[in-house]
Write a structure and sequence with these properties.
Blueprint lengths: L2 H5 E2 L1 H8 L3 H9 L5 E3 L5 E4 H10 L17 E6 L3 H12 L5 E6 L2 H10 L4 E4 L8 H9 L8 E6 L3 H6 L8 E4 L4 H17 L2
Helix pairs in contact: 2-3, 3-6, 6-7
Organism: Sulfuritalea hydrogenivorans sk43H
GO molecular function, one term: DNA binding
InterPro entries: Bact_response_regulator (IPR050595), CheY-like_superfamily (IPR011006), DNA-bd_dom_put_sf (IPR009061), HTH_17 (IPR041657), Sig_transdc_resp-reg_receiver (IPR001789), SinI_DNA-bd (IPR010093)
Protein backbone atom coordinates (compact mmCIF):
# COMPACT_ATOMS: atom_id res chain seq x y z
CA UNK A 1 0.00 0.00 0.00
CA UNK A 2 1.42 3.39 -0.99
CA UNK A 3 1.82 6.27 1.44
CA UNK A 4 -0.90 8.19 -0.43
CA UNK A 5 -3.52 5.47 0.08
CA UNK A 6 -2.48 5.23 3.73
CA UNK A 7 -3.05 8.95 4.31
CA UNK A 8 -6.04 9.43 2.01
CA UNK A 9 -9.17 7.47 1.11
CA UNK A 10 -11.95 7.69 -1.46
CA UNK A 11 -15.28 9.37 -0.74
CA UNK A 12 -16.97 5.97 -0.67
CA UNK A 13 -14.44 4.64 1.84
CA UNK A 14 -14.93 7.74 4.01
CA UNK A 15 -18.71 7.25 3.90
CA UNK A 16 -18.32 3.62 5.00
CA UNK A 17 -15.98 4.62 7.84
CA UNK A 18 -18.44 7.29 9.04
CA UNK A 19 -21.52 5.12 8.58
CA UNK A 20 -23.27 7.63 6.31
CA UNK A 21 -24.44 7.69 2.70
CA UNK A 22 -22.09 8.55 -0.15
CA UNK A 23 -24.06 11.78 -0.77
CA UNK A 24 -23.66 12.83 2.87
CA UNK A 25 -19.89 12.31 2.68
CA UNK A 26 -19.84 14.37 -0.53
CA UNK A 27 -21.77 17.19 1.17
CA UNK A 28 -19.42 17.19 4.16
CA UNK A 29 -16.45 17.30 1.79
CA UNK A 30 -17.90 20.16 -0.26
CA UNK A 31 -18.60 22.16 2.91
CA UNK A 32 -15.09 21.62 4.30
CA UNK A 33 -16.00 19.30 7.18
CA UNK A 34 -13.77 16.70 5.55
CA UNK A 35 -10.39 17.73 4.13
CA UNK A 36 -9.92 16.62 0.54
CA UNK A 37 -8.10 17.25 -2.73
CA UNK A 38 -8.82 16.25 -6.31
CA UNK A 39 -6.70 14.03 -8.51
CA UNK A 40 -5.90 14.99 -12.10
CA UNK A 41 -8.83 12.82 -13.11
CA UNK A 42 -11.19 14.83 -10.90
CA UNK A 43 -11.62 12.21 -8.17
CA UNK A 44 -11.67 13.29 -4.53
CA UNK A 45 -9.17 11.94 -2.04
CA UNK A 46 -10.13 12.56 1.58
CA UNK A 47 -7.74 12.87 4.49
CA UNK A 48 -8.13 9.85 6.77
CA UNK A 49 -7.10 12.09 9.68
CA UNK A 50 -10.09 14.39 9.06
CA UNK A 51 -12.38 11.35 9.00
CA UNK A 52 -10.97 10.22 12.35
CA UNK A 53 -11.42 13.72 13.81
CA UNK A 54 -15.06 13.77 12.74
CA UNK A 55 -15.60 10.32 14.20
CA UNK A 56 -14.02 11.39 17.48
CA UNK A 57 -16.09 14.55 17.77
CA UNK A 58 -19.40 13.58 16.18
CA UNK A 59 -19.94 9.84 15.84
CA UNK A 60 -22.76 9.31 13.37
CA UNK A 61 -24.89 6.31 14.34
CA UNK A 62 -26.39 3.94 11.83
CA UNK A 63 -30.15 3.81 11.82
CA UNK A 64 -31.22 0.17 11.63
CA UNK A 65 -34.99 -0.40 11.50
CA UNK A 66 -36.39 -3.43 13.30
CA UNK A 67 -37.97 -5.97 10.96
CA UNK A 68 -41.71 -5.52 10.81
CA UNK A 69 -41.57 -2.26 12.75
CA UNK A 70 -44.11 0.36 11.72
CA UNK A 71 -42.76 3.86 12.09
CA UNK A 72 -45.04 6.70 13.11
CA UNK A 73 -44.93 9.50 10.54
CA UNK A 74 -43.60 12.29 12.73
CA UNK A 75 -42.33 15.59 11.41
CA UNK A 76 -38.67 16.39 12.04
CA UNK A 77 -37.58 19.91 12.97
CA UNK A 78 -34.01 21.14 13.30
CA UNK A 79 -33.33 24.39 15.15
CA UNK A 80 -29.92 26.03 14.58
CA UNK A 81 -29.23 28.81 17.09
CA UNK A 82 -26.12 29.79 19.07
CA UNK A 83 -28.04 31.24 22.05
CA UNK A 84 -28.42 28.29 24.47
CA UNK A 85 -31.22 30.01 26.39
CA UNK A 86 -33.16 30.55 23.18
CA UNK A 87 -32.56 26.94 22.13
CA UNK A 88 -34.09 25.78 25.40
CA UNK A 89 -37.07 28.08 24.81
CA UNK A 90 -37.56 26.64 21.31
CA UNK A 91 -37.62 23.09 22.68
CA UNK A 92 -40.00 23.97 25.53
CA UNK A 93 -42.50 25.88 23.39
CA UNK A 94 -42.50 23.36 20.52
CA UNK A 95 -42.97 20.48 22.97
CA UNK A 96 -46.11 22.22 24.26
CA UNK A 97 -47.68 22.48 20.80
CA UNK A 98 -49.02 18.96 21.16
CA UNK A 99 -48.06 18.02 17.59
CA UNK A 100 -46.26 14.86 16.33
CA UNK A 101 -42.80 16.43 16.14
CA UNK A 102 -39.21 15.38 16.76
CA UNK A 103 -36.93 18.33 17.50
CA UNK A 104 -33.14 18.43 17.15
CA UNK A 105 -30.96 21.42 17.98
CA UNK A 106 -27.55 22.67 16.86
CA UNK A 107 -25.42 25.54 18.15
CA UNK A 108 -23.90 26.62 14.83
CA UNK A 109 -23.86 25.95 11.11
CA UNK A 110 -21.32 23.11 11.27
CA UNK A 111 -23.38 21.19 13.82
CA UNK A 112 -26.49 21.91 11.77
CA UNK A 113 -24.88 20.57 8.59
CA UNK A 114 -23.85 17.38 10.39
CA UNK A 115 -27.39 16.84 11.68
CA UNK A 116 -28.89 17.46 8.23
CA UNK A 117 -26.55 14.83 6.79
CA UNK A 118 -27.40 12.41 9.58
CA UNK A 119 -31.18 12.71 9.33
CA UNK A 120 -32.61 15.35 6.99
CA UNK A 121 -35.33 17.39 8.73
CA UNK A 122 -38.64 18.40 7.21
CA UNK A 123 -38.17 21.92 8.56
CA UNK A 124 -35.01 23.77 9.53
CA UNK A 125 -35.30 26.93 11.61
CA UNK A 126 -32.02 28.82 11.72
CA UNK A 127 -30.44 32.01 12.97
CA UNK A 128 -28.04 33.86 10.66
CA UNK A 129 -25.44 35.55 12.87
CA UNK A 130 -23.56 32.69 14.54
CA UNK A 131 -19.87 31.98 15.25
CA UNK A 132 -17.96 29.72 12.88
CA UNK A 133 -20.22 28.66 10.03
CA UNK A 134 -23.12 31.11 10.19
CA UNK A 135 -26.65 30.69 8.86
CA UNK A 136 -25.79 32.24 5.49
CA UNK A 137 -23.06 29.65 4.86
CA UNK A 138 -25.26 26.83 6.13
CA UNK A 139 -28.12 27.71 3.78
CA UNK A 140 -25.79 28.21 0.81
CA UNK A 141 -24.15 24.84 1.48
CA UNK A 142 -27.57 23.20 1.34
CA UNK A 143 -28.99 25.26 -1.52
CA UNK A 144 -27.58 23.10 -4.33
CA UNK A 145 -27.61 19.76 -2.52
CA UNK A 146 -30.19 16.99 -2.64
CA UNK A 147 -30.84 17.56 1.07
CA UNK A 148 -32.61 20.82 0.20
CA UNK A 149 -35.33 18.94 -1.69
CA UNK A 150 -38.43 18.63 0.45
CA UNK A 151 -36.89 20.58 3.35
CA UNK A 152 -38.47 23.88 4.35
CA UNK A 153 -36.12 26.55 5.70
CA UNK A 154 -37.21 29.37 7.99
CA UNK A 155 -34.82 32.08 9.18
CA UNK A 156 -35.37 33.82 12.52
CA UNK A 157 -32.75 36.52 13.00
CA UNK A 158 -31.89 39.72 14.81
CA UNK A 159 -30.57 41.17 11.54
CA UNK A 160 -32.88 43.51 9.66
CA UNK A 161 -33.84 42.96 6.03
CA UNK A 162 -31.27 45.50 4.78
CA UNK A 163 -28.44 43.68 6.61
CA UNK A 164 -29.56 40.36 5.15
CA UNK A 165 -29.58 41.76 1.62
CA UNK A 166 -26.19 43.41 2.15
CA UNK A 167 -24.74 39.99 2.99
CA UNK A 168 -26.05 38.36 -0.17
CA UNK A 169 -29.68 37.75 0.71
CA UNK A 170 -31.39 34.38 0.96
CA UNK A 171 -32.39 31.81 -1.70
CA UNK A 172 -35.93 31.81 -3.05
CA UNK A 173 -38.38 29.95 -0.84
CA UNK A 174 -36.60 30.70 2.44
CA UNK A 175 -38.91 32.54 4.83
CA UNK A 176 -37.49 35.35 6.97
CA UNK A 177 -38.78 36.46 10.37
CA UNK A 178 -37.25 39.03 12.75
CA UNK A 179 -36.58 38.23 16.40
CA UNK A 180 -38.13 37.85 18.93
CA UNK A 181 -39.06 34.35 17.82
CA UNK A 182 -42.55 34.40 16.24
CA UNK A 183 -43.79 31.15 17.78
CA UNK A 184 -47.39 31.71 16.64
CA UNK A 185 -46.30 32.01 13.00
CA UNK A 186 -43.94 29.05 13.32
CA UNK A 187 -46.70 26.87 14.73
CA UNK A 188 -48.96 27.85 11.83
CA UNK A 189 -46.22 26.86 9.35
CA UNK A 190 -45.72 23.50 11.07
CA UNK A 191 -49.46 22.82 11.29
CA UNK A 192 -49.82 23.60 7.58
CA UNK A 193 -46.99 21.21 6.70
CA UNK A 194 -48.58 18.45 8.80
CA UNK A 195 -51.95 19.05 7.16
CA UNK A 196 -50.46 18.83 3.66
CA UNK A 197 -48.62 15.66 4.62
CA UNK A 198 -51.82 14.08 5.96
CA UNK A 199 -53.62 14.82 2.69
CA UNK A 200 -51.16 12.57 0.84
CA UNK A 201 -51.62 9.58 3.17
Amino acid sequence: MSQTTTIYCTTREAAEMLGVSLRTAQLWTESGLLEAWKTEGGHRRISRASVQRLLAGERVPRSVPVAGERRIARMKILVVEDDVVLLKLYKTVIANWGLPLDVSVAGNGVEGLILVGRDTPDLMITDLAMPGMDGFELIRSLATSSFREGMEIVVVTGLDAADVEARGGLPDGVRLFPKPVPFTELRAIVAGMLERRASYL
